[in-house]
Structure formats: C-alpha cells, structure tokens
Specification:
It is a single chain. With 98 residues, this protein is mainly α. The chain folds into two domains: 1-36, no CATH class; 37-97. Helix content is 56%, strand content 6%. It contains two helices and two strands. It has helices at residues 39-65, 70-97, and strands spanning 18-20, 25-27. Strand 1 and strand 2 form a beta hairpin. Helix 1 runs antiparallel to helix 2 (70-97). Keywords: Membrane, Transmembrane, Transmembrane helix. The chain crosses the membrane at residues 46-65, 71-92.
C-alpha cells in the first residue's frame, strides 16, 4: 500500500487498517461496516437483541412484579433468553437469506 508518484494517499487507509478481501477495501478494526454483514450476521444480531431484551424484561418482571427470588427470576429470564435465541435464530436466518 505504498504511495505512488502523482497520486495522493488515501486518507481512509491508516496504519491500523486491515485489507478485507470480502469487500475489496480497507477495514478498520473496531469499525462496523453494515454493508458487509452476511444474512447469518444480521440474523444472529437481531436474535441476540430480541432474546436479551425478553430475558431482561422477564427477569425484572418476575423479580419486582411477582415477588420471585431475584436469583430464581434471573435464572428463568436467562433460560427464556436462550430458548428465544435458539428458536429465533434459524427463523431469522431463513428470512434474511431470501
């Protein structure tokens, strides 16, 4: 990636940039390129987002609303989140692959 004569250096390519062969351009560690997400990436992220939201909501609801022991409510909320992710991920992956 050396500079050639008569050509200005690309300001977006910094020393910490890594060349990404999938998109054919430099990629900076820590930066998110939403256009490079595969359907599996999108499905996984949406599934985890929904599952963690449901698990947290259920934990707080069982603990504060129903008076469950906080640790039991946390266990049930985590279990609901895991089950939700296991069901939602394949469904979302199939949906985003279309």
């Amino acid at each position: 990636m050396g500079a050639s004569i008569g050509k200005a250096p690309d300001p977006t390519v910094t020393p910490d940039a890594v060349w990404d062969t999938r998109v054919g351009r430099a990629w900076h560690p820590g930066a998110m390129d939403f256009n490079a997400w595969r359907p599996e990436d999108t499905a996984r992220r949406f599934s985890i987002m929904g599952a963690s939201s449901l698990g947290t909501f259920l934990w707080i609801g069982l603990w504060l609303g129903s008076g469950f022991n906080p640790l039991l409510a946390l266990l049930l909320g985590a279990l609901a989140g895991v089950v939700t992710h296991l069901i939602a991920y394949p469904v979302l992956r199939a949906l985003f692959r279309r």
